[in-house]
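Lab notebook: predicted structure, single chain.

Context: the supervisor wants predicted structures on file for every construct in the current expression panel, including those that have not yet been purified. This is the next one on the list. No modifications to the sequence; it matches the entry in the shared construct table.
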Amino acid sequence: MLTCIQLPGQSNVISLLRAIRRPFTHLFSLNPADPAAQSICRVTADDNGFPCRISLDHTAVGETLLLLNYMHQPAESLHRASGPIYIRENVHTTFDRIDEVSPPLQKRTLSLRADDKQHMAVDAEVCDGSDFATLTARFFERADAMYLHAHYAKRGCFTCRA
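Prediction complete. Output recorded below exactly as produced.
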């Protein structure tokens, strides 16, 4: 999750980017015959194009990941949604940094959508990842923008919630 705040007397926006914190470790030990495992794919990275949603980093070639469905917009609204995400098997660190955007976000084209408290879209843009922080700050200047969702634009996969 990315949280943007402006401190009194400060002109700049400070952002805190946090990845998904939900535990997924138990899913790696599921038997493939288990019904809970039926919609989960075990993948071995063959290049660095597998961004983990916990570390918000690219996965090294040869690492094991799970590709699974994740409910990233649980609100009862027109935008209720879930989609595929990658989780690294041996991820030990959750991305949690102030004023820093992870490399996978910076290097890809992103689709950003700002939603209001009724979970309706109030603004949206497709941007280069290097513009992520600037665009996020601009969205949060809107009084009606409560949060935003970022997706990788090419495949539409959920990236993070801000």
